[in-house]
Design goal:
Helix content: 40-55%
Number of helices: 14
Structural class: alpha/beta
Radius of gyration: 21 Å
Distance between the termini: 50 Å
Largest sheet: 7 strands, mixed
Number of strands: 11
Oligomer: single chain
Shape: globular
Length: 389
């Protein structure tokens, strides 16, 4: 009798179950009673009335979907406005909107490595120097680029400098601005200096910096004084601080022009839905008018960190909105997150293989719209449900 081609899936599921690594989907209700420290709505804009109204208006005017790829029918006047607004707000020459931040990162890395030849490898591909803590989308971009990739120790500008110094030819350094697991920031100024010593380009994923860091939330690249520089490209997501969906690449106009012709996740993907574009535009306007939101989310993160560490828990000092609290094991992290949920608090649970160092964590994401009382109660819940070390 022929072998069942999917038997191996059952064995893999059992292996993951025994290791406490099975993941499950949990649909949330529209009006959840939980205090949300699990999502990425850093500025509290996803339900802001101006943002939701803009999304509805865009859907009514332009339709529920973009109807095609950006190069066919998927570009509307709204898309062009959003690109202009993002570039101006963040301090770059130009921007290009994608259907997700993941797609934007894949596009930026692969397109900046050059087109492959018939053998699947770009003859002029640069060395890509990638931080060990980078997001999966940057890692996958490096893999798809089929270029030589050197993974360097986390947030180590000197390691980047030495790696670039040992290479002749084009090079591209890629890094998160704020790392999604621990919430720590990359040394962007030092990385830019290392890149410029060797004529390398710098690509920064500013997904967790936009709306949180920099003047009025203009991002970590802007805060580092690198926005608009000729050798720097940034990517952002519209699904965190801007409370919408989608992503964008920002950089010199010639880089954006190159992406339009060479980025496969731009050319072959359906354009971002008009409702998401309208929502992101409205969020940008709210942020311009209310820059205090960026400062408030940083304050909330700092307070959460202060309260849990003062009580003896181990947590990484947050550089932006993410507070990472160490758990003793994957199983303990899952139980801890479940106990928090039972007590009315939604928190993130990070464990292998999502975390590169194998350390399980609760991940608390600060929000600008949390009250002081909610901050106090959230910290108390985390402490009260904490497992024994």
């Amino acid at each position: 009798m022929p072998q069942d081609p999917f038997d191996w899936i059952d064995a893999e599921h059992e292996r993951r179950r025994a290791a406490g690594l099975v993941r499950t989907l949990r649909p949330r209700p529209a009006d959840s009673p939980l205090v949300d420290l699990a999502g990425n709505d850093y500025l509290g804009l996803t339900r802001h009335p101006e943002v939701t109204q803009a999304a509805a208006d865009a859907a009514r005017r332009w339709g529920a979907g973009a109807t095609g790829s950006r190069l066919v029918t998927g570009t509307t006047a709204l898309h062009a406005r959003l690109e202009e607004s993002l570039a101006e707000f963040c301090g770059f020459e130009a921007a290009l909107v994608f259907s997700s931040g993941y797609a934007a990162n894949l596009a930026a890395v692969t397109a900046l490595c050059g087109p492959p030849n018939s053998s699947g490898v770009s003859p002029s591909a640069p060395l890509v120097v990638s931080d060990a803590g980078n997001h999966a989308s940057l890692i996958d971009g490096c893999r798809l680029a089929r270029a030589e990739t050197a993974v360097v120790p986390h947030a180590d500008a000197e390691a980047v400098r030495k790696t670039l110094g040992a290479h002749e030819g084009r090079a591209l350094a890629v890094t998160d601005s704020v790392f999604s697991v621990d919430g720590d920031a990359a040394p962007l100024a030092a990385l830019a200096e290392a890149c410029r010593e060797h004529g390398a380009a710098l690509l920064v994923d500013d997904a967790h910096g936009l709306g949180v860091l920099g003047e009025g939330g203009r991002g970590a690249v802007h805060a580092a004084g690198l926005a608009g520089d000729a050798d720097v490209v940034a990517t952002v997501t519209l699904s965190k601080s801007l409370g919408s969906q989608g992503g964008a690449v920002l950089g010199p106009a010639r880089v954006i022009r190159h992406l339009v012709s060479h980025a496969r996740t731009f050319i072959f993907d359906t354009g971002l839905a008009p409702a998401a574009v309208g929502a992101a535009l409205a969020s940008l306007e709210v942020l311009r008018r209310e820059p205090w939101r960026a400062a408030r989310v940083r304050y909330v993160a700092t307070e959460l960190h202060r309260k849990v560490t003062a009580a003896g828990l181990t947590a990484v000092r947050p550089d932006a909105a993410v507070v990472s609290v160490r758990a003793p094991s994957p199983e303990a992290a899952v139980r801890w997150a479940a106990d928090c949920r039972t007590a009315g608090l939604a928190v993130g649970c990070f464990r292998p293989p999502s975390v590169p160092d194998g350390i399980s964590r609760l991940r608390l994401t600060a929000r600008a719209d949390l009250t002081d009382r909610q901050i106090e109660e959230a910290a108390d819940t985390v402490l009260r449900t904490a497992p024994a070390a």
